[in-house]
Amino acid sequence: MTTKLTTPFKEQLLAQRASLLEQLANLRGGKIGRAEASANHFGQAEDSTAQVSTERELEFTLDARESDELSMVDAALHRIEAGTYGQCIDCGVAIPAARLHAAPEAPRCIACQEKAE
Fold it and tell me: Which residues pair with 80 in a beta bridge?
């Protein structure tokens, strides 16, 4: 894929990356430390132990999901720089542009993604 074709995807990935970093910062307490943020989130005396546990698990799950998504975006940006963006990392076939528009971080063609899942 040429630089001219990858430029819109790179811009989309960079915007997605910035958004994910902002979301992660908010989940992790923004400008305060993670320990302080956790104490603020989970230190309410009126909250039941089950509610606190559920909220903590949800927050950690969201953090892990967004961290994984950030890794995928970074990998896609590396593929752009390496000149391999738009090629399936498993079979090497070109990933359809429609798939890349929908999910610019997609590393695999649909057939290989289905096998991977």
Answer: none
Contacts of 107 (CB under 8 A, 6+ apart): 72, 75, 76, 79, 88, 89
Using DSSP's 3-state secondary structure scheme, residue 87 falls into strand
What backbone torsions phi and psi does residue 25 show, to the nearest 5 degrees?
A: -60, -40
Output the tens digit of pLDDT for each of the chain's 117 residues.
Answer: 777 788 999 999 999 999 988 887 877 666 555 556 556 555 555 667 777 677 777 777 777 788 899 999 999 999 999 999 999 999 999 999 999 999 999 999 999 999 998
Q: pTM higher than 0.85 for the full model? A: no
